[in-house]
Model the fold of this input.
Amino acid sequence: MNTGESVIEVSRLRRRYGPAGAAGFDAVREISFDVRRGELFALLGTNGAGKTSTVELLEGLAPPTGGRVRVFGRDPYGERAVVRPRIGVMLQEGGFPSGLTAAETATMWAGCTTGARPVGEALELVGLDGRRDVRVKQLSGGERRRLDLALALLGRPEVLFLDEPTTGLDPQARHLTWELVRELRDGGTTVVLTTHYLEEAEALADRLAIMSEGRIAAEGTPGEVIAGRPSRIRFAMPPGWFVGDLPPLAELGVLRHSELPGAGGQVELRTRELQRTLTGLLLWARETGVELEGLDARTASLEEAFLAIAGAGSAREEADA
Ligand SMILES: Nc1ncnc2c1ncn2[C@@H]1O[C@H](COP(=O)(O)OP(=O)(O)OP(=O)(O)O)[C@@H](O)[C@H]1O
Done:
């Protein structure tokens, strides 16, 4: 359903807290990206990277300090009355009176929503139809998250903002939420997701951006973001054999190798040419009759890419470059 048309356009966006000068803080530093209609776009980053500060600008909750944001071609802050009815926002902890039931909460929220879908339908979408008469305070944490999602869906939004939608959900409820989000996306809803679960981004996102210190450090499809990271090969050398016995590693395309401490001759190789390195290694093993125990080869995961890009693993990964 991605039509190529941009529904969110962000250009050199800035957000600063506090006064100009050293006393203030630049949380969002000239970031640019587009989100296309029908696409699921994930915003990732470590704590404090600037995700919430960015999303709040997209939702029209605050004006940017600089740059430009457009949703449906409109200014979400200056033209909030036009933009707000077309977006759905799943808040972290909706903050509703906990004495109300799930259905009463949704009914109250529907009263503030233009063209709201029936409350029963919204609760059914998130699998809470059987819990409609339960008070919010008696819902589990995961059920409350799903109620937050039901409220965001009441207005049949064209653009849905999901902030950590599966935090506190058990694996089954998480997968149900993923299915629902996919169905919404397949039905044409544009979704902007912030999450700390990298497997969630990998499972759902058409494209993603990784924020670090207020900037976008990487952007693209999950495959594109991962592609730049080296793959990993692990095995154990049999007794009496050493890394120095392997063919020249640089000729096999190995960027870096390490011998894992205390792990019985475990060797780890990093390569951007997995097939070439692996072929060379296996040919050598056949020629010498060596058994590479526990041989394991894998392409980088989004988590590895994230750790490298967002900084936590930067020093080590820079050595690969
Ligand atoms: N109202 C505020 N006043 C001053 N600084 C703020 C304010 N809100 C956020 N910040 C700072 O801006 C930076 C970005 O915060 P933000 O909440 O956008 O990050 P985030 O990526 O959403 O983090 P998290 O994953 O922890 O939710 C942080 O350093 C934070 O301390």
Notes: The radius of gyration is 24 Å. The chain has a mean pLDDT of 89. Residues 17, 25, 27, 45, 47-53 surround adenosine-5'-triphosphate (CB under 6 Å). The first strand starts at residue 6 and ends at 17.
